[in-house]
Amino acid sequence: MVNPLSVLYRDDYLLIVHKPAGLLVHRSPIDKHETEFALQYARALNDGQHVYPVHRLDRPTSGILVFARDSDTARTLGMAMMAGEVAKTYLAMVRGWPPEHGEIDYPLREEPEDRRLKGVEQPVRDAVSHYRTLATTEIPVEIEKYPTSRYAVVELCPKTGRKHQLRRHMKHINHPIIGDANHGRGRHNRYFAERFGQGRLMLAATGMAFRHPASGEPLTISVPPEESFLEVLSIFPGFDVQVHFEK
Prior knowledge:
Layout: E1 6-10, E2 14-19, H1 38-45, E3 52-53, E4 62-68, H2 71-82, E5 87-95, E6 101-105, E7 108-109, E8 124-125, E9 128-139, E10 149-158, H3 165-172, H4 186-196, E11 203-211, E12 218-222, H5 227-232, H6 241-246
Parallel strand pairs: 4-11
Antiparallel strand pairs: 1-2, 2-4, 3-4, 5-10, 5-11, 6-9, 7-8, 9-10, 11-12
């Protein structure tokens, strides 16, 4: 069996991998019948030994996923994430042209994973995200009521860690992420799924920076999006994502 995870960094304390879109991190009550998980593939990369996921990455989101190789490291890094000491960067493709940069300060109601709790009112938590527009394009295709359709590539940096935060925040400012079945625009999602022969969420975790939980030294991990993401970005003439990552 081919392991879908690729190793980005490994030492005695950490195993950092790239997760492809479509792979669950671990078992979830939402997908009870799923049999493949990033957690089991990470164990295989760890000589069969247990690993500890220290943060979430939604099933349709690709990119950087961090595992600790022992419980103490998991606890230390988990506390750093809760304290806002871990910087995360994402790349996304959205509908429309957002401003050059901005902050989204919009509290979000918690979304329980257990469907039995959907009728129970959940608490509202503070949520803040920053964005920066990297590229824009306009294609001569009528998808909604206009003869052309506009899209942008944005860099997203969540300052808090709420469930589906970036997807919900981009919907809030009317620039939903392409391929988002729950918070996006169906007509645009269908157009790109048909045009490229595959429908995927255009959101990728591309950067993470924090102090190493054992040494305290700064550690920065960066990786371009996977090929299925880059293929859709071909609608942005002149935008080279590799150049963006080399800056």
